[in-house]
Amino acid sequence: MQSFTPFLVVAVALIDADGRVLVQQRPPGKPMADLWEFPGGKVESGETPEAALVRELEEELGIRTHESCLAPATFASAPLENKHLLLLLYVCRKWEGMPEARHATALQWVRPAQMYALDMPPADLPLIGILDALI
Ligand SMILES: Nc1nc2c([nH]c(=O)n2[C@@H]2O[C@H](COP(=O)(O)OP(=O)(O)OP(=O)(O)O)[C@@H](O)[C@H]2O)c(=O)[nH]1
After folding, report:
1. Minimal-distance CA residue to ligand 1 atom 1
2. Over the stretch 22-70, which tens digit does the pLDDT of each residue have?
């Protein structure tokens, strides 16, 4: 049997009033540089997934939201290097502030169908159709 080391990541589809979703481009020098992803990151030890996401949104985009505004949407499960990625994807429609690219190279608002034309991490591909059906 293959060994399983879970690597827990949280991410969010921020949805605007037009039903578009925010994606950000990973900066050079990081693994998967230049790919477009959902904002989020690793869950630190001792942190709940929701607290991690609230923290990541403040750090990466400078926006504030509340755990009660994060609705669980779907998840991805995929091998990643020598680990196994479990990515919990939430949906959020309510936050304060204007997202700015504090860590990412760029941000863009896209409809789920437009995501198929973007280079995204392989684990994200199954999430697009689910997101499209959800919003
Ligand atoms: N945020 C995010 N990470 C994703 C997505 N899809 C995906 O495979 N990942 C992977 O999940 C991991 C997230 O780690 P990260 O390095 O971005 O997390 P972080 O913000 O805590 O990074 P840091 O080490 O700079 O603090 C990366 O290996 C990334 O490639 C996604 O849609 N959003």
Report:
1. 40
2. 999 999 999 999 999 999 999 999 999 999 999 999 999 999 999 999 9
Task: Name the pLDDT band for 1 (thresholds 50, 70, 90).
Answer: low
- Residue 4 confidence (pLDDT): 74
Rounded CA-CA distance 6/73 in Å is 20
Looking at the structure, give the CATH architecture of the domain made up of residues 6-134: Alpha-Beta Complex (3.90)
Pocket test for ligand 1, best of 23, 37, 75 (most atoms within 8 A of CB): 37
Q: How far is the CA of 27 from the centre of ligand 1 (A)?
A: 11
Distance in Å, CA 10 to ligand 1 centroid: 8
pTM of the model as a whole: 0.96
DSSP run (H or E) holding 84: strand 83-92
Contact by Cβ (8 Å): 87, 76: yes
Percentage, residues of the chain above pLDDT 70 = 98
Sorted by where each begins, the domain ranges of the chain are 6-134
Of 72, 69, 76, 113, which Cα lies nearest the Cα of 94?
69
Output the ligand 1 site: residues, CB below 6 A: 9, 11, 31-32, 37-38, 40-42, 80, 85, 87, 121, 123-124
